[in-house]
Each structure stands twice: as C-alpha cells, then as structure tokens.
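Job type: complex structure
Entries:
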Amino acid sequence: MASDGNEWELSKENVQPLRQGRIMATLQGVLAQQDVSTHTIIQQQKRAFESEIRFYCGDDPLDIWDRYIKWTEQTFPQGGKESNLSAVLERAIQALNEQQRYYQDPRYLSLWLKFGNCCSEPLDLYSYLHSQAIGTTLAQLYITWAEELEARGNYKKADTIFQEGIFCKAEPLDKLLSQHREFQARVSRQALEELENDGDVEEQMDSSVSEPQRSTLAELKGRGKKVIKAPISRVGNAVKFPSQGQRLQYPPPQQASIRPTFSVFDENKMADSPPDLPVLVPQPWVAPPPTKSKENELKAGPWTMGRRPRSNMDSSVLASAVTPSFTPYVEETAQQQAMTPHKIESSINCVLSARKPGKEEDPLHRVQSHHQDGQEKKEQPMYCKERVYAGVEEFSLEEIRAEIYRKKRREELQTLAQKKAELQRKIEEMEKVVREQQENHKQKLGVQQQVEQETAAEFSAVSKDLKFSPTEQQNVLDTEPIVEGFLPECFSLKSNFELAENNQCKNSNSSDAEISPAVNSSMLFSIFDESSALENKTASLSLGLSLVCGKHPLVVRKLSESITAKENIPPENSDELHGIEPLSEVAIVTGSHKNKTLCPNPEDTCDFVRAAHLVSTPFHGVTEQRNQLGDKLEQECLESKTTPLNQQIAVSEEQYDEAIYVKKLSPILEASQEDTRSSASSGSPTQISTVKFQQIPEKLELVHTTDEITNDAENASDDSPEGLQNTECKQFLRRLPDLLTKASGFKLEAQLMPWMELEKEVNLGNAIYHITREYLISQNDKIFSAVPANVTNKDSTAFLIKVHSEPVPWDFYILLQLQERLDAEFVENFSQYFTCFLYHNGCVTLHETICCVTLQDMIQYYKVIPREVVLLIVDNLLEVVEKLHKAEIIHGNLNPETLFLGDRIYNPFAMEKTNRALKIVDFSHSLDLQLQPTVNSLKSFPITQTQIGQQIFDETTPVHQVDLLGIANIAHLILFGEYLQVHQEKDSWKTNRDLSQSIDGDLWNTFFDKILNANGKSTVPLLRDLREELSSSFDSSFPKRLCDSITKLEDLLHVGDMILT
Amino acid sequence: MAKQQSREQGITLRGSAEIVAEFFSYGINSILYQRGIYPAETFTRVQKYGLTMLVTADSELKNYLNNVVGQLKEWLSECLVQRLVVVISSKETTEVLERWQFDIECDKTAKNENAPRQKSQKAIQDEIKSVIRQITATVTFLPLLETTCAFDLLIFTDKDLAVPEKWEESGPQFITNSEEVRLRSFTTTIHKVNSMVAYKKDTLL
C-alpha cells in the first residue's frame, strides 16, 4: 500500500501542518524513505545549504537562510529533534542579528515569528520585536500577535495590537483591516453567546439533551430506569460551548457545583472597565525573551514525590499480568500491510534517550548571550570562526578548505573544458585538411613512380606527410601555452600518445622504403653478439643509425620474428619470450617521458631489472667492458650522429645490474631504456644498447617541435634534397675555409663538446657559464641562456649559447657573412660579440649580452600586446628580413621562440634605437644564396611543413617567400595570439580572420594581403614597401606612446624574468 | 438508504447515481467543514460510512446543497456528468485557492442494461470511506486558508445539456501554478469517481 503513493495518508499523524502547505512530491519522498539513499540525499542537501551559508558572497544572506528554513520545514514533516528547525531558526537569527536592512523584510519577520512558535512565551517575543522595531510596518506581526492574544482570551489586548498595527499603517493594510474585522466579529459573537449562556447554563443542557451526546468528563454509567441508556455515543455536540476553536475553556457543568468560593475576575463581565484602551508601551528589551519549553524539559516539582522503586518480585508479577484479558477490537477492513511506515531506518535514527537535565543550555539563552556578545566583542578569533560555526552544523577547517578548493577546481575545469572543446574542434578541422592533402599527394605519387630512385625519395616525402598530422596537432598544442600559459596534463598525455603514433608510422614508412625484409629489420634494430663482435660492428655500420621504437608491441613482435630468423636463435627462446612480452610499457613510457631531467625513477628501474632478466639467456660474459662502462657512458652523451659508429656498446646483464644497484641510473641509460626493452622482448640472446646520440637527451620530450620531426624525417631519408643541401654546405664548411679559421672569435677546441644541461655549469673557452634556461629549436640545435658563473646578473641580458650537434659552424659562418655584407647595419639586429667553439662532435656559438626574453615569452605573458609595440616589432622584423635578403641570406625559420627581444624593448635607455627591437641568433635553417645559388626545394624549411606552408607553397615558389610567410605568421601571432590561417580568394591568399573589426584593420589587411601574395616579386622592394605602409601610423606622437606602452611592458618583463630564471 | 440495504446485492444505474450523489453531499460537507469555510459550530455530527461525518446545520446551506445534489443525481442517472468541482476562493480577492475536483466516469452502456451489476454495497462504502478519510487527512499538506473563503460548485456536463433555470455557465476556474494531489477513487461499476485536490504553490519554496 505504501507503493501507491499514499504514504502521506498513512503517516498523516506524523505530519505537522504548515501554514503555506506542503509540496506533495517532497512529502511523499520523505515519508517513503525506506533506505539509506534518501537519507543521504537529504544529508547532502543539508550539507549544500550549510556550505552555501559559509561561502555565500552575494549581498542577501537572508535568502539562503529563508530557503534553508523552508527546506527544513518541508523535508522534516514530523518536526522534532531531527529537523533541528529551532536550531536553524536560532542560528539564522543570530547570523542576521542587527542587520537593520532586514528589519522590515517580511522574510526576516517570518523567521522571527516561526522562532516564536518554538518559544513558550511567544508574546514576549512579539513585544521584543515591537520594541526593536522589527517588522513593525508589516501586518503579519500584528496579526500573529493578536491571534496569540485572542487564543489566550485577552481580547482587549488583541484589539489594542490591531489598533496599533492599523495606526502604524502596517502593510498590507487591507489584510490587517479584514483580519481585525473578523476578529471583532468573532469577539462580538462570543460575547453574545456568552450573554445567552450566562442566563442559564442548565437551559442549554436541556436544549441539547434532545440529541444523543456525551457530556465532557461525565460518567459513562447507564442512566435511566426502564431503558438503560448509556451515553456512549460520541455523536452530537459535546457540552463544550462553542468557542470557535479558541482555547478558551469553560468549566464543565459538573464542576460548576464545586466552584471555589472566591470569585474569579472576569474582564469580559466587567461593566465598568476603563473606557480608554490600554496603550501598547514598548518595553525596554535588551535581548529576546528567554526560554522555550521543549517536550522533554523537566518541570520544577517537589522532589519528595519520587516513588520508591519496586522490588524485582513485584515487577515480575506485574509482567505476568500484562497479557490483556480482552481481545482488542480489530476493524474487519484493517489490513496488516496498511501500517504506518516505519519512521526511519534504525541505523540512521539513534535510540531515544532521556535528555540529561541541565546538560544542554536553553537555545534562547544562547541567542541572548550571543546578542550581548555581539555588543561587546572583545575577542578576535585568529581562524575563520564565522565559517566554522556559520551554519547549524560545524565545519572543520579542512572541510572549508576543501570546499574552497572544489570551487576553484570547478571554475578551472569549466574553463578547461571550454578550451578543450575548442582545441578538439581545431584538431578535427586540421585533420580534415591533412587528410585531403594526403589524398592529393598520393595521387601525385602515382604519377611519379617511374624512376626507382625517385620513388625512394617520394617515400620519404610520404613519411613526412604522414607525420604531418601529429605535427599539426602539436602546433595546436603549442599555441595552447601561448594563449593560456600552462599546458594541461591531459594534453600533454595526448601529445605523448601522438608521438608514439608518429614513431610508429615513421618506422613503418621507413621499412616500406627498404626492399628486403632482412635489411628492414637491421634498419630498425641491431643485435650484438659479443662472440662475433667484429661481424656485428660491420653490420651496424652498414645501417648507419638504428632507430628503435620500443613503445609499440606490434612492431616489436614483428621484429623479434625477423631477428630470430636472421640470427638463428633457438626457437624455444623466442617462444618463451613471447609469453612474457607484455611489460608495462605505459609505465615506462610515461614515466621516463614525463621526467624532463630523466632522473632515476624507481618504477622504471623495476621494469628495467625485469627487462634485463628476460635477456639473461645464453651469455658469454664480457668482463673487460664493464670497466669501460662509465667512460663510455660519458662519451655517449657527447656523440654526434656523424661520428663513426664505434660507440656502440654491448651491455651485459651484469653491467645493467651494476648500473642499477651500484651506480645510479645515468640519464643516458634511462633514455636508452626503450631500446633495452625492445631488445628484451625480441628475445635476442644478448643485447646491444645502441644508444642514439643524445646530444639532447630529451629527444622524446613532450615539446616535440616541428623542426624536430622534420629533422627526423630528414634523417630517415638521406637522399632528400635537404640532405643534399646540407651535405653540400657541410662539406664546404668542413674543409674549414680560412674565412672561418682566421676570423676573430673562432676557436677550435680539440676535444669533445662539453655536456650542457639546465641549471648546470659549463666551461666554454676559459669561462664558466651557469645555464639558466634552454630554448629548444630542434633535435640538433638548441639554445641555452647562461650567465657567467662569477657574475650575479642583475638585468635580463645574458649569454646565449647556440649548440649545434654537428661540427659545422654554420651559424658562425652566416654571422660572419652578415657582418661582412651589412657592415654598420649588422649590430642592430644581430649580436655584436659572438664567438664560435668548434668541437669534435659539435659546434657552439656564444652570443654576448642579449636579452634572454623571446618574442614567444612576450606573447605568452601579455594577453594583449600594446599596438605600438606590435607595430615596432613588425616593422623591425620587416627591416631585418629586408637586410638579410639584401645580403642574399634567407633566414628560413623565423620563429617567435628564437627571436629575442632587442635593446629597444628591454632596455629603457635605448629610446632612439627604434630599429633594434629584435635580435636574431638562430641561423640553423639559413641559406646563403651566394654559396648555394640554386636552391629549388623548399622542403627543408620548417614552415613548409605547417598547414599554411603546404597551402601556399608549391614547387615553384622562390625561397625568399619562406621568410615572408614567417613574418606574416609572427605578425598574426602577435596581433591575435594564434597562428595565421589562410584561404584562397580570387587567386590571392587571405587570412581567415576578419580584420575589419580589429584596430588598424585596414592597415593589417593590406599588410597581409601584400605579404601573402608576393607572387615571386623581388622581396627587398616589397619589404620596403610594407615598411612604408606601416610607417604611416608612426606619427609624431608615436614615440611618446611607444615609450608609455614599453614602460608598461617593462615591469611585466621583469616579472616574467623572475619566472623564467 | 434503508431501501438500498434491503435490496439484493446488485447495482442499478439509479442506485449508483444515488450512491454517488450521496457521496458528494457528504464529501462537500466534509470539505466545507475541514477547510473552515463555514464556522465549525454550524456543523453537526452524523454517522455515515462507519465514520463520524460533519454536516451543516445551516438551513440555507442545506437547501443549497440539497438542490445541487438533487440536480446532480438526475444528471448522474442520465450519465451526463463528467466532473464536479468544489472551488474555494478568497472572499475578498476572489482568487481561487483550492480546487477539489471529482472526475466522474459514467458507463453509458448501463442505461440500456436491465440486469443490475454485481458489487456489494459494503465494498463501495469502504471505497467511499477511504476517500472521505483522505479528504480529512489533507490538512497535513494543504496550506492554511488565512482569509475568509467562499465556495463554488461547478458541474461539468455533456455539451448538449440545456442549462437549468437556477444554473449558469462558468469557466473552469483553474489555479495558476498549482500543486495537484490525486486522492483515491471509488467505483460503483457504473460511475467511477476520481478525486483530486489542487492548491496554490506560489507561497511554497
């Protein structure tokens, strides 16, 4: 029966009526609560209110309390202790105490009036309210007050209250007036009936005898002689004089006879009452009236009345007699299941226990004392007391903190979700574009499959294209930190995943390019068998570089098979290992990759050890190599790709163990972990750790830039045009022309390049530098900013160390050429003092006193870069490129990450040097057109790998355009914080962004229009033209405004510095 | 009533109409008492359905109700009534505060039947009793009627019915933003009465 939604009826006795009624849904829900879940929901809601009270920051705290109280009333229909209503009311009153603005608020008044219902003497409370001028303009106060008085029979006072209310013009007045009228009607009717009753009580008795009825408290004995008539019928009017529901009790007729002899003052009968109505005098209340009688409160009584406890015997006798001798009447229709629902589950509801007298303070006393406290207020709590005790329940400090955290977290998550959705959208768009382009490319590919050599080259192109998709995504991911300044974890994980994909597709592609499967496997992998070390060496040499991807079990499995075949390993070995194959790759991959500095990670080591054990199959111990390990490891990190392959090390199991347990894992070992692991799963009897030259150990770092992937691609296909290009100039430089060796600042160091790492010191020439920051350009090129170790640097200038992993001083060469071809103009945008250290395995170019803040940093730290600064930078960029092109040098990779801020921006005293906004130190991708006049392919430039590059460039585009597009891209990035996106419109390229709304919209419109649609024009005049275009906005007030905006940037730049260094 | 009890255990259309009309008579009285539309002292107690019912002693009201119920009975036996609504509205603002709605489903096939339907008088009475009990119990959730109220009786009939002399057409008098609670229903197999009460929700949460 409880299921048909009639719980309310079954529990009607447990539901207190409410003035405003109840919501049936809530009522049903609460009454139907059979399980803990409803209870917890209620607790959660309560919790929500409690925390809302604490963390509310709006201007209407009463609102929460109002809702909380209404909720409590609705949710706890049976009232009582559990509802805690009086406690909530009390706390609300305390919390809102002395808030004058609420005094005439009906909600506040109703709060008090509800509280009044909890008090034993509501009248006191009403007069307190009146004295405090709370709700004195509200009719409800007077109505409630008068009702209470009327209920107590004090009609005169009640009338006075009404009069007072009408006098005060309490709102709504008509309601008050109508209530007053009704009151008067009731009273007059009362008086009338009383007059009748006064005349003859007996008469009334007689008149009512005609109907069967039972008189109040009369005996239930049969009356009459012949017909015994027992007045058992409950039907008919009780002998209770109609009093219309008021609590005015008249003495029952039987008691009239035993009336006491003294006369009771009856004010209604008093004829000579004073004609003037008593005036309501506000009483000087300090605090609301105290006390409230609760059902369990002890009443004062004579203590001698207590009964002596009965003996045990008595009680047992009593217990036996308990069984009733009669059968209780059971209604025929009564059904067993129609029982009133059980109150609440016992686990929730505690057993009732008698209240300890005096233990609990009276709530109103507390209110009172609180009020007085509020007036004194001497103590100053040093914790957030008001939050701990704000609601009815007490919150712990931790809970408060957690709540604050959650709030913040929620906001963060919201913004993140928005960003993520946006990014996802972008990625999808780009993927679509990429897919289209791939389609196109494949079609082209089909045509060109005639010459075998060409095919190989094209394969490499395909592999580039395939990688292109992750690259694009990476680009998007890169823009994220620019916009927001932090890279959320979810994205970094994602990019990690993409990297894996990338690697896989790289591998598969490179293997496709090969002809025989045997070579394929050796390409990916090389096995060292110490018993035939010589043979192995030759094998390794033949393949040049071994690229191993250990992250994809699929690939690895395939490998293991081919290798087994090749090396004639007993089949049981590989079988055995097939079973053990799944090592926790994820743990290794994520573990080592997240760790930027590659410090030993215990988890990794575990897997590492296991991996080592797996390989501990037949092994002919090589002891002599053990000693070499340390040295070799050191060497490994210095090795470059072009050095002969004598660095391949056979690492025995013992050596690994040693490395794990005795020495701490070196970064290199850790980095080579994947290699080790994959060879383990391949089941080779011994393993070789072909450590890839880790000039930059973080080759799998998350910031996988475009260049890096491009370079990978280049490495994968040696006969690509870029490769040719590079080798050409490398060969030229390797001969070390006199031009270089005789130049000042060129130092040939007959040693290996020193190891450079963040926060470490490095010895260059005769000076020691402390590396403070690193800027990644590509796998082979890196820039570090450093300060001389003995100088504590005060400004943001530093030494920049450009490291190239090949012993080719290309940067130095370009710088020299520029110096020569530009003469005086050289210093403006290039470092004045630069030195080159050429090592066996690399080359270091040291630039002196250059601001270590890049353009990228600036874009990242300022959401909006002042218009003047934008103009300055773009103008300067145009100028620089113009100069470069004049000197017949193509920069090739204009990138905000490697463009450093020049004197004009970071140095407040260099006001005149307007043309020194930027410094260029990176020339990794530069081309000297005098040296290589015939460059036809643009593939070597990173920008051609981006979406925009693919869109705009084709085979016939002149190289100069690379820099133009670079400028456009940077300008767009500075202006809008995101990379340029273009579309074609009537044979000309347009930006996707609508510029008309932005500042200088027309200016930038023409700018992008011209720079994107150079169409093979000579770039030098074009750049000059563009500069003139821009200079139109350099009016007379420009220098002043520029100064202002730069000073604004100034502080922020230094703040940025602090973060950077 | 005595006549009915003495009769065989079967329900005819006429008897059914009588039972339903009687229910309405007591039901309306009960509502008027429970909701304090008329002063409590103007009601007297009678035993009905095994319950103590309060019926008005006010002669004017009695007449009015008898008149309505008489008419209702007529229509019921013709299966023309669809719904009876007791509307309680504020006397001053004439705003509808409560609306007791009794939907009546008439089985019109009973008009042509001769054989009485099988349902014991007692079963019907028990059903009616539970409805009346529920009406009494509604005080647990209904809002307090703070102003003096008046009541109105609306009877929804079939469209083609001619309006009798003392009756007038009226709108349905719905409550805007109301909370509705379904009460129990009873059936005589010919007439089925579904009851429901609607009340103002504005002042709630």
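Summary: Chain A has 42 helices and 15 strands. The CA atoms of residues 95 and 390 of chain A lie 7 Å apart.
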